Amino acid sequence: MPGPLLGIYANSTILLASNYGIAPGNSATVNDTGFAALHTAMIASPGTIWHVIFSPGAYTYTNNRWLWDIQNVIIDAYGASFQCTSTDPYFVNGIPLNTGDYFTNSGDVPAPYTYTTGYLINTAASGASSVTTITPADAGNFTVGMPVVIYGYDQQGSGYPPNMRYFEYKNVLTANAGTGVVTFTDQLQNFYDSRWWDTTYPDGDHLAHGAPRILPLQRADYNQPNLIWLKGGSFLPNSNNSAFNTLQTPANLVIYEDASAAAFNVVETNKVIIERSNFAGDQSTCDKLVDSMLFENSSINPNPGYPAGALTDCAGTNNVFLSHSKFYGALYQIGPRHLMLNDVDVIPASTSYSGIGTAVSFPISSASIGNTRIYNTGQAYGFTNVASPGNALTVGSVSGTNIQMTWNSTSQAIAYGIDYGMTLTNTTTGNTGVISGIYLSGGTLVITGTWGTPSPGDVMYYYDVINKYDQGGNVIVGTQVPFWRVPP
Asked: Is the previous residue joined to 389 through a cis bond, with omega within 30 degrees of 0?
């Protein structure tokens, strides 16, 4: 346990679940009453780090929101299992725990929810210590110390939550409703361009996302948990719907230590640490608006629920670090901005083309792999991304050296797949350069870069992985095939 976590643990206040009428032998409805009493006790003191101890045994309940809005909690549950028995048809109402979703504004009630979005901001540079709301009065919604998320650049156009490529979590230092300036305790990591497109998500919250925004994470209708730390505990699928099996607890910091479940989904979370935990029965996911996930000394076995892949997606995640862990299935269509593996075993199903495969349609800034073993059960490669010559972009019109494309489904797909710092190459003429800008001007997608003047109709190619790093020690176990498919 890292030193700072030891301090958090040492300064926590102990509560015994049994003192609130929560017991393994109780019916789910009786435990609901106990969990409601526990929730009332914890929510009364947001600054306290609560350490709730559960005796060994099987706990059932129908209301899975007993950690909703709780700011800091450690669940000490070695030898205990938790199971939601709700018959509600909504996924979030039936999974083991429901800690909320920061795009909702319905408060502590079961789904279905209503939704909100952030306040539009002007263009902001990486390294800046503030943003300015387009409507100055919007800055009045922020207060000193408030956690916020800044986000923009839609890269999917559908789904939920919205898939923003650039995002970061900050704390407010000052806010001025007269000027619209909101300052933070540290600098912005990303550049935010007010010319990025907005998409009204058709199958999610039906709100517009993509243009840069800032959203408060402490509001009357929602308070993001600061710390959720699960120590031990088995989080079982819903007894009335086995598909509701996912451990999903959005918070600023999430820790799963010695925990088990059928699967996990990390979403809308700043940092997640998964240590010595095991997930068996279904595919696990690191989804959207996640800054970093450390998965260490742990395992995922998706069988029999999803044999094709153990861990998937991560396209809305900045950093995924997998270390000293085992995956009984491929890392399947995986696409975080930065993927790092060290001392990992991947045992894919025989139907998997590779042990590790990217999503192809989402850009990856870097993939760094070392001391990793891919057990060849019929694979062609250890790691695959888009094959040579890469994804294709057909130049529409040209302004100077800028590439322009009419904004439609084709150009949207291009915008989702390219990235700043990515190389575009015309394999026929040799014209090549690095992307420096991507934005919408009227009804035209504009792509700026360092290449020479292209011509309308030119085809430029790009790879989904911008940088690949072989850190050494990587092995194909079994029939020998290349570990990497090249290029790039």
From this structure: yes
| Segments forming the whole domain that contains residue 167 | 119-219
The pLDDT of residue 2 is: 61
Asked whether the beta carbons of 77 and 233 are under 8 A apart, the reply is yes
Residues of the chain below pLDDT 70: 1-4
Domains of the chain: total: 3
The bridge status of strand 72-76 relative to strand 80-84 is unpaired
pLDDT, one tens digit per residue, over 423-445 is 999 999 999 999 999 999 999 99
Phi-psi region of 33 (alpha: psi -120 to 50; beta: other; left: phi over 0): alpha
Last residue of a domain, one of 317, 351, 384: 384
- Per-position DSSP letters for 174-219, written without gaps between them: EE-TTT-EEEESS--SS-B-TTSPPEE-TTTT--EESS-EEEESEE
C-alpha span between 145 and 133 (Å, rounded): 18
Largest Cα separation within the chain, whole Å, is: 75
Question: Is 292 part of any domain?
Answer: yes
Kindly report the number of other CB atoms within 10 A of residue 414's CB atom: 20
Kindly report the number of other CB atoms within 10 A of residue 110's CB atom.
Answer: 17
Could you tell me how many residues make up the chain?
A: 488
From 384, 414, 447, the end of a domain falls on 384
pTM to 2 decimals?
0.97
* Residue 477, domain member (yes or no): no
Distance of CA 184 to the CA centre of its chain: 22
CATH number of the domain where residue 316 is located? 2.160.20
Instruction: Kindly state whether residue 86 falls inside one of the protein's structural domains.
Output: yes
Model pLDDT for residues 85-122, shown as the tens digit of each residue: 999 999 999 999 999 999 999 999 999 999 999 999 99
Q: Give the separation between CA 71 and CA 280, rounded to whole angstroms.
A: 29
Which CATH number do you get for residue 431? Answer: 2.40.10
Strands 147-154 and 260-261: unpaired
Taking the CB of residue 1, how many other CB atoms lie within 10 A of it? 12
Distance, in Å, from the CA atom of 394 to the CA atom of 4, rounded to the nearest integer, reads 51
Instruction: Decide: helix, strand or coil at residue 289.
Output: strand
| Residue 308, pLDDT score | 80
Whether residues 289 and 379 fall in one domain: yes
